[in-house]
Amino acid sequence: KRIEGKFLPLISKLKTLKRALRIGTNHGSLSDRILNRFGDTPMGMVESALEFARIARTQGFDDIIISMKASHPKVMIAANRLLASKMDQEGMDYPIHLGVTEAGFGEDGRIKSAIGIGSLLIDGIGDTIRVSLTEEPENEIPVAKELLEVIPSVSFENTSHNSLFSGPWERRGADNSSPIAVVGRIGLENGSATLSLIRDRIRKETPLEIAEIAFPRGAEIQKQAADFFTEINQIEFHPALWVPFEEKMTFDIRPDGIILDLDQNPDRSIWLEALRRCEAWKAKLILRSRVPGLILKCLKSLSDSAVPIIIFVSGGGEPGYVHGVRYLFAQLVNLKYSGPLMLSSSTGPNLVVAAQYGSLICDGIGNGIQAGAQAADEAYLDFSFNLLQASGSRISKAEFISCPSCGRTLFDIQSTTERIKARTAHLKGVKIAVMGCIVNGPGEMADAHFGFVGGGPGKINLYVGQTCVEKSIPSNVAEDKLIELIKKHGKWKDLA
Description:
By secondary structure, the protein is of the alpha/beta class. It has 16 helices and 17 strands. α14 links the parallel β13 (399-402) and β14 (431-435). α7 packs parallel to α8 (219-233). It is globular, with a radius of gyration of 25 Å. The N and C termini lie far apart (58 Å).
């Protein structure tokens, strides 16, 4: 009743002036009343918005668009799916505005936006979008346009939003709990360089649990591969040497698995021969295909085998990929397949691939990712780890929540964020918010461990969680004060 008393005059004015209204809720900015009833949850976000929409509907006012925003893509995805479902149940048909708020800058910000916005567009949810980067505003438009390419050529007419999503699924794997992996692939042309790159990355980052290393048969590469295995096994990394299936195969080192490309080998007799060799070598069998039905047909024909099977579903980046993988995964659950399901794209790292992979990974589908068919390089590995970090599946560095610049920003948000990131990016698992002002900052950085927030011209407020612990620090010393605060709370580690 209190809300209605304050809200009705606004509705009356909107109707008189023929204006539309956006009703938006933000994770971290919910009222105490909503928090007490629902907690800081997607359900709380949805109910906070819908109570206004219900009041507006009693007044015959329907010129409304609704927005559910969060800085974490998983929360944003869950809130918007729930919103679409609840609106279906209540007979509402309001457009939905999508955005990952305070996504940050650079590739991190783009991937976060791709996962949150792209996942929902793939589901058929969303009518307008906003990409929010800590960069010049004009940089947001090309990202938004690229994300429109994820919309599949699938009709959603007469299909309720609720039926499009029945997860999140339990991630499948040998123990159903292993962290998702980056799949590194050694190509034919720069095998030596990529061996060195993966070796260095394994030392620096969270280890890759699964690696596809398709070596050519050159004697020099084979020797390097054997040395690589010996060295990496000493740091508890157990890679597999996977080689393409051919009629004539010779090996200088024993393979740990055989790739069977079903698209090139659709004949059951070849499947059985590959299986026979795997049994003889005590090796894994890797099934790869763009066609879910072909994977299922092969798996059923080999169902009595004791050979461990790994499935690569390729074709990422192509229209309809997510729906095909969802179908395949549902069938694999019915078949009680418990091995890894690997996601492989046909193109290099880009926002469409990030949206598709992010949609699946956030739903618990997939144990590993491979972006692009070419050899791994530094950009590929950075993209892969950034994608896993943004989806909350694998944390390998600090996470940053930072707002776009606007008229309320009280310092140079771009350069400040870059400096703070340069000093703190190595703090694995620490979430740091860099916010331009106190208007939206404290609410929109709900998930952050530490906050660096503009408190006035030339002044910074520091937060631990959502509690302000130091106010009006001169901006020229505020970054050092932030580091001191991180150290005080035991989250600091010196660079190795």
